């Protein structure tokens, strides 16, 4: 879910910044490209960081930023068939930072939602089976 939301949000922001008009087919195409970039770069990082999930952790944001910079430097020349010389421009840094922040925010929201859902499920389970009285010894 985090991959889909992040790719759609990144595509939407990309279109708002770089294109004065909205093209649905172009939006879908850019979303698919973002999805695969997030899948191969951000998703393995997310799996590694989810071993100890933290909501809105600055440490995680810095890790996502570093991974985003390296991923952009590796993938962008490959997709655009450029030479592998590292050419860092302001737009590239802006795009990498924005993509990392989008993924970090959505990842934190998903973690938070999972925690809320798990807590409410446990409460419902305790109420349904009346475990509270059993645990108190009544």
Number of strands: 0
| Overall mean pLDDT | 78
Strand content: under 5%
Radius of gyration over alpha carbons? Answer: 20 Å
Biggest sheet, open or closed, and with what strands and sense?
Answer: none
Order of helices and strands: HHHHH
SS-based class: mainly alpha
Please give the share of residues in helix.
over 70%
Point out poorly predicted stretches.
none
Question: What's the topology here?
Answer:
Layout (H helix, E strand, L loop, with lengths): L1 H17 L5 H26 L8 H22 L10 H40 L1 H6 L2
Helix pairs in contact: 1-2, 1-4, 2-3, 3-4
Structure description:
By secondary structure, the protein is mainly α. Helices cover 80% and strands 0% of the residues. It has 5 helices and no strands. The protein has helices at residues 2-18, 24-49, 58-79, 90-129, 131-136. α1 (2-18) runs antiparallel to α4 and α3 packs across α4 (90-129). The longest helix is centred in the C-terminal third of the chain and has 40 residues, at 90-129. The protein starts with a helix and ends with a helix.
Highlighted features:
138 residues; mainly alpha; 5 helices; 80% helix
Could you give a short description of this structure?
With 138 residues, the chain is mostly helical.
């Amino acid at each position: 879910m985090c991959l889909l939301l992040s790719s759609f949000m990144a595509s939407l922001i990309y279109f708002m910044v770089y294109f004065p008009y909205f093209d649905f087919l172009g939006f879908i195409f850019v979303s698919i490209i973002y999805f695969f970039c997030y899948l191969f770069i951000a998703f393995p990082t997310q799996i590694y960081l989810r071993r100890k999930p933290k909501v809105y952790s600055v440490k995680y944001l810095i890790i996502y930023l570093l991974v985003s910079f390296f991923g952009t430097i590796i993938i962008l020349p490959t997709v655009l068939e450029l030479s592998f010389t590292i050419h860092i421009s302001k737009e590239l840094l802006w795009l990498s930072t924005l993509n990392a922040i989008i993924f970090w925010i959505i990842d934190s929201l998903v973690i938070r939602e999972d925690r809320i859902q798990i807590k409410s499920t446990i409460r419902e389970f305790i109420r349904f089976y009346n475990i509270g009285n059993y645990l108190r010894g009544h």
